[in-house]
Each structure stands twice: as C-alpha cells, then as structure tokens.
Amino acid sequence: MTRLSATIANLAAMRGMSATPGDGGRPSHLRDLENFGSNPGALKGKIHIPARIREKPALVVVLHGCTQSTGGYDRGSGWSTLSDEHGFMLLFPEQQRANNFNLCFNWFSPADNQRDGGEALSIRQMIAAVVEAHDIDASRIFVTGLSAGGAMTSILLASYPEVFAGGAIIAGLPHGSASNVQQALQAMRDPGAIRGDALGDRVRRASSHKGKWPAISIWHGSADPTVSVANADAILAQWLSVHNRETAPDHRQDIAGHRYRVWTDASGRPIIEDYRIANMGHGTPLATTGDEACGVAMPHMLEAGISSTRRIAASWGLLGAGLKRGCAQPRTHLQAETSTWPAARISRLEPLPSTPSSGTNPARGGVEKVIHDALRSAGLMR
To answer: What's the pLDDT score for residue 23?
Structure first.
C-alpha cells in the first residue's frame, strides 16, 4: 500500500513541473471554443477540426492530467494526428490555474463532480455546442482522460451516460471516490474495499438513466506511484456491476507484454476492456515506434510499446481499417494559433440547466485553501 506521505511527495514533484511539460515552446494548432454556455466551472475549451472531416463525424472529448496543458497532452498522445487521418472531431476542455493551482480538474469537489453543476456541466455544455455547430453524430461521442482527467472521465460517464457511447479512463479513479481533498489523497493511494454492487450503485445514482450504458476502457500502469493500480480494480468492479457482468472475462491475452482482458455483450461487442501496463508508472501509455507509433514521449506520456490512443480509437470504430500508419509527429496548423471558433448555439440534445457564471466558482476558494493548507503542512508551500 502506498503511504500518504509518498502520495503527497509525488504530487509535490508534479507541482514543481512546468505547467506545460513537453510543449517545448511549440505553437498549438488547437482552436479556442467560445460562447458555449453559462460555464459554471469556469473552464476553457479547445477544439481540433481536421482538414478533411467526415460527414456526421464522431467527437472525442480529451481531458488532460494535472500540470498539463491541452496542447501538451495533444502532442504527447497524438490525438489530433489520428483526427486528421480519420476525420473525427476533438474537444479539449482546459482547466484554469484560478480554479486549481496544479491545473487538475476538480474531481474531488462536490461543486464540480455531479450532474448539472460546476466543471461537469461546463464540459457538457461544450459538448452540446460542438454537436450543434458541427453536425456531430450524437450517437458517437466519446471521452477519455488521464489521472485527474481520468477521474473526471469517470464522473462524466456516470453523470451523463446518455451522452457517451464509450469512455477510456487512464490512471484514473472510480466515480464517487472523494468529496474533499483529504478523501482524494486517501483514494489515490488506496480506494478501500472493492465491492462491485456498492461501487455500481454510485454510478446508478448519479443520473436517472435507464438506457444503454457506455462501453468502458481501463488503462493503468502496474507500478503507478501516484494513483494506486487498485483504483483500476475498483473502476472495473464498478462497471462490471453497471453492465451486470460476472468477474470472469470473455477473453484475455498478453499484448506487447501487457495484460488485456475484455467483456462483451450478447452480440460480441466489447463493453469493458481492461489494460494493465506492466512496470509502467503514472501516465498515458504510448508506442512511439513500430506499427502502432502515435504520440511523443514526455512527462506522464510514457513509452510502453503499446499505443493507448490508437487502440482506444480503434475500439470506438474511429480508424476504419484498424491499427495502421504512424503518427509520431502531429502536424502544426500555424494559421490557427490565435483563431477562435464561435459556437453560440446549444445542442439538439436535452435542454441544459443554465447557471450564471462569474468566471470563477464561489466554492473554489474553500477547496483551494484546503489544498494550500495541506501542502503547507507537508512543507510543500510557504
């Protein structure tokens, strides 16, 4: 079991990193998303529109981890290059330092981790605006995220299951893990007893959803010192309960030395995939060489001989013929550096609640004070 002191030390190390690790001063080719709703979580949004976009394209929502920028995570993961190759749209919600000093999504804050409130609602509003403005296929909307972005992915899948066809949680935590900073630190090092029905009930209570549940892909390094791999077990137990599946998988194999298990529905469609990346620490697994090459290694974007980006996209049916071509170096759209893409209309999806935004969440001051007090008591801040 990881000690709490070790978890705090790992967070401190992340805090000391550049806010945009691996960007190397490169201009971002992502465009600003504006006028997407009341934005109660005070987030920013970026989008990528491929030069050749499919008719009724799919949409992938990508959530960065702590200390990361949208541009850095995109470059490391290679998502926009796959978008250019295969014609689907990308949405990158972006955390602001005024909301969280370490640029983490506030997955542990009750103001942000529930349906129709805070950051969760801001992201839902972004999705609705992009769906309406670019004629997205509303049946092919997906979400993925790393670490705090992975935890927020769990929240979105539980809170808005009717919106998403699938989600991929990378080094994240199950829905309902924490409602304050202390619980978050505890959950990161040890999620506690893993009881599938109780964990599944957290998802079932998050909305009034009665329909089809999203397909889930779980990715976690076996040597993760920041978010215990036991959280992957908890996520798996949570969604096995939601999908009413037994513990035993329908198929298992080793891929590039990593354990892969899959559970399917009656038609043979994968509904839960579980990847455990051998000897990998905290980050997104990449293959930067070979047939699966995609992305660029950098802090928390880790060479593992397997491309989570490419395999996630393939499982969602976004790559056509499958795992082909490399994408090690995303192309840069220099003319899009300062461009904006207005999206004033809201989606054809169900009406969204509207909460006036003052640019900051009033509940955040208390959350930030707790974070700073905890860091000061650990000797990490003055």
So the answer is: 54
